[in-house]
């Protein structure tokens, strides 16, 4: 476990002072704390979740279906030809709307595409149109599959059927 030293904000150190006196005053203001939570009842201001991005659930937050990522609607493209590049994907998918991001992963050993890509659109309508039109279409001689990257499935029942 790591030790943490908190120094109160009201510490005034004069440079003109005797060095030893200022060090003693500083030591008086220090609070030494140990452990993960610094004990019960202690302030945990450092753990507040401020500044994190999040998305609003919208009209279909609990329903099964596509889910928006923090930045946009992402399509998962499978069976992409290994010699395809970002320009090929951009040419094929840009006719349905503005593409915010294209992510392709290359195989380290061969340097070719791994066979899938992620295409991000800003709006649901653009992504849905691209998915409908391009799922099952041909690209560089291969049939590609286009589907949603993030999908929320149906609610699961917590009841279990027990055999007696």
From TrEMBL:
It is found in: Nucleus; Nucleus speckle; Cytoplasm. It comes from the Eukaryota. Residues 73-151 form the RRM domain. Keywords: Cytoplasm, mRNA processing, mRNA splicing, mRNA transport, Nucleus, RNA-binding, Transport. The keyword Membrane does not apply. Residues 34-68 are annotated as: Disordered. Gene3D superfamilies: 3.30.70.330. PROSITE patterns: RRM. SMART domains: RRM. It holds the Pfam family RRM_1. Core component of the splicing-dependent multiprotein exon junction complex (EJC) deposited at splice junctions on mRNAs. Heterodimer with MAGOH. Part of the mRNA splicing-dependent exon junction complex (EJC) complex; the core complex contains CASC3, EIF4A3, MAGOH and RBM8A. Belongs to the RBM8A family. This is RNA-binding protein 8A.
């Amino acid at each position: 476990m790591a030790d943490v030293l908190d120094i109160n904000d009201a510490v005034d150190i004069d440079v003109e002072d005797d060095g030893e006196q200022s060090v003693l005053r500083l030591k008086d203001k220090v609070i030494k704390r140990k452990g993960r939570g610094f004990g019960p009842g202690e302030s945990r201001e450092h753990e507040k979740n401020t500044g994190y991005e999040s998305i609003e659930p919208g009209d279909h937050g609990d329903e099964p279906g596509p889910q928006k990522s923090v930045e946009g609607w992402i399509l998962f493209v499978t069976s992409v030809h290994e010699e395809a590049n970002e320009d090929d994907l951009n040419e094929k998918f840009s006719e349905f709307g503005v593409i915010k991001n294209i992510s392709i992963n290359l195989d380290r050993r061969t340097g070719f595409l791994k066979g899938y890509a992620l295409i991000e659109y800003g709006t649901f309508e653009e992504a849905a149109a691209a998915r409908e039109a391009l799922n099952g279409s041909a690209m560089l001689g291969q049939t590609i599959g286009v589907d949603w990257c993030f999908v929320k499935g149906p609610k699961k029942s917590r009841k279990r059927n027990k055999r007696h």
